[in-house]
Amino acid sequence: MTTAANGAIKKVGDPASTTAGDTRTIASVKVATTGTEVFDALNLAISPFVTAGVDYGAAFAFNANTGVTTAAAATNLVLSPISAACSGCHDTNVAKEHMKSNGGTVFGTRTEALGKTEQCLVCHGPANNALFNETPPAIKTVHRWW
Ligand code: HEC
Ligand code: HEC
After folding, report:
1. Which of 26, 62, 68, 75 is the one with CA 20 to 30 A from 122?
2. Per-residue pLDDT, 132
3. Count of domains in the chain?
4. Please, are residues 119 and 103 in contact by the beta-carbon 8 Å criterion?
5. What is the CA radius of gyration of the chain?
6. Of ligand 2's atoms, which has the minimum distance to the CA of residue 80?
7. Is 125 helix (H, G, I), strand (E, B) or coil?
8. Which of 125, 135, 141, 144 is nearest to 82 (CA)?
9. How many CB atoms lie within 10 A of CB 126?
10. pTM of the model
């Protein structure tokens, strides 16, 4: 499971900086989708996968001094393992919906991901997948390395 978001995402009206005495607040929230957007100092830039003002819960933590482990919150946004690898390149909405409808989680909650199982290898098997060995969508067939 790859954690994509945890903690509280700031929103309009929250402090714009942590500098003591700086009372300026975040003026607007802009979504960074291309990376070429222009932001001024009081804009909040967020990724398209999170929502301003939402608290995605605590991340996994381990305190070596006390030996206390804090489990990651069920509300974290995560990617399931195979979908995380494939969606790094296959990031269209069609591709992501395909993954979600086959047991994958793409920026869903940890609860959602733990509640289903990725079925990808039934169809996208490796070279020894008898069912789809030489025809798409076997991984070997569509990502040839020879
Ligand atoms: C490093 C980038 C990368 C990753 C990671 C990746 N792919 Fe691909 N994949 C490609 C490229 C590039 C193509 C060829 C796209 C084209 O020809 O339009 C492709 C093609 C495909 C195709 C054929 C799609 C079609 O429309 O013909 C399938 C199926 C596929 N990949 C499945 C997967 C699966 C499953 C995973 C995860 C296990 C994965 N890919 C991970 C880059 C990637
Ligand atoms: C029931 C069979 C089946 C299952 C299960 C399945 N896929 Fe696919 N997948 C396909 C087929 C068929 C294609 C289209 C192949 C082509 O166009 O050549 C495809 C295409 C893809 C592509 C390329 C899509 C694109 O538009 O670039 C990716 C990535 C992918 N699958 C990932 C996954 C992942 C991740 C899972 C598991 C969460 C999964 N698939 C589960 C059959 C399946």
Report:
1. 75
2. 52
3. 2
4. yes
5. 20
6. 38
7. coil
8. 125
9. 11
10. 0.88
